[in-house]
Each structure stands twice: as C-alpha cells, then as structure tokens.
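U., I forgot to send this yesterday:
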Amino acid sequence: MYQIHYNIMTTRYFESLFEFDVLCCNISQIDENIELIAVLNNKGRAIEMTAKENGVNKDLTPMKREMLFMESVLKSNMNKEHNHEFGNVYSSILEREKFTVFSFEMSEYVILVISKTIINPMELKNKISETIISSRKVELTQ
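Result:
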C-alpha cells in the first residue's frame, strides 16, 4: 500500500513539472527526421503522442503501436533490475534498418522518439535530452 501511494505521488509530481503536450511539440521541432513522440505511462499507454501524418505511425496498426509502446516500457522496467550494479538508465538508442528509436526514462514515464535513420543518433539524442530537461515548468516562489 505504501508503494502505491508513493507511485501516485511521484506520477503527480512529474505531471506537475512537465506539460507533456508542449514537450512532444518541442521535441518534434528539433529535427525534421523525427516521426513520432510518445509519453508512455508505466503500463505502456500513451498519455501524449505527436506523430507526422505520413510518418511511421501510418504503417502501425493500433495493435502494433500498442505492442511497441508496451515493449518499450517493459524494456525500461527490465533495465531497472540492474540499476544497483550499473546505475540508472537515462536513455537508449535502438538503430533499425528504417528507423532509429530513442527511449528516455523519467520516473514512471518513458518518452519514446522515433526518427528516420540518421547519420549521428548520439547528437540527436543529446538534443532531445536537453529539450526534456529544459521543458520542466519553472516553479516560481514568492
């Protein structure tokens, strides 16, 4: 019961720090090769998503998209099993023949970004990471 309460507090805390629709929009403007951005909850459900009309999303059936999202969250959860030995995972890059998939972990969320295959995925990953960090809402104190 304590763990459930903690997760709800953590989720609400992060939702108060980020406007996920703005975050998706900001990430989509980083590079013209970005096709899809999704903020996934810990169950693999997209709580926010931005996708190009003629991008990778048109090739995914709703079921395939749901499976991709659940797979991303499952990988994230499995990676957490080794945090004690290796430290926390902040991001990962999966290069495929047609697309590059970036995954960023934020507490109970996974931010999934899919782009066309690019020459320097590390450079794009760093730009996305910077955007995620800078997209935090500034909390003003009086």
